[in-house]
């Protein structure tokens, strides 16, 4: 039987980030830690990127090596215990890519999401029929069962918009995505109407970058900026491309994508004008 998959929680990511900063503060490289402790540098990399949870004795060893004061050790060990919770993963997620299930786990704990989408409507705003057409078109080799599993997952993700404390979603969509007939005319009309309804959801903002805006920072590809309620949790960038899915959390990357999103806000139509544009396209 295959080992049960798990996904990281935001608490595990916070612990990983603090361990990485502690090591950086000592000037030690991962190879130096391996030489002094016997902990393989690859294992340390996985711990520092929240891909695996360290054993308690490993955590204690690292804290001792980094010379962490006693009171700070107590705080980090408490955070370690809290990080034991599993991220959101269901049996039908087993066929999904690890990076995608990791993204879902962080998405469920995010306070706000800024999403630029250039080629299709963001997943959190897709109708079921549109999502099915997207999955079939992109994953053309997937079995019918795999397609339905992915559509089901995408629909479940949208629960973050309707909880008691819904996330703040700011979606910027390129006009090209609104004209692409994904699934045919009826499916596309229903999708456009779904966007018009979505702006009534508390905390949801939609803007459209019109063709007339010319070249803009979103043209290289789609991206997501996630922020979290706890100030200790830094923003997280998620980029999905043909080359694969990556997470970025270096301060320079965060600032660059924040600036790109702000620029997209500036060149896009206002929220009210965007809804009017969406309605016009739907009526056509």
Description:
- With 284 residues, the protein is an alpha/beta fold.
- The protein has 2 domains: 73 residues, lambda repressor-like DNA-binding domains (434 Repressor (Amino-terminal Domain)); 193 residues, Endonuclease, Chain A.
- Strands 3-2-1-4-5-6 form a 6-stranded mixed β-sheet, sandwiched between helices.
- Helix 1 runs antiparallel to helix 5 and helix 2 crosses helix 3.
- The longest helix has 17 residues.
- The protein is elongated and about 65 Å long.
- It comes from Saccharothrix saharensis.
- This is Helix-turn-helix protein.
- GO terms for molecular function: DNA binding.
- InterPro entries: Cro/C1-type_HTH, DUF5753, Lambda_DNA-bd_dom_sf.
CATH class of the largest domain, named Alpha Beta
What's the structural domain tally? 2
CATH architecture descriptor of the largest domain = 2-Layer Sandwich
Shape: elongated
Mean pLDDT over the full residue set: 89
Main beta sheet strand tally, sense and closure: 6 strands, mixed
Overall structural class, as computed from helix and strand content, comes to alpha/beta
Spatial gap, N to C terminus: 53 Å
Question: In sequence order, what are the helices and strands, one letter per element?
Answer: HHHHHHEHHEHHEEEEHH
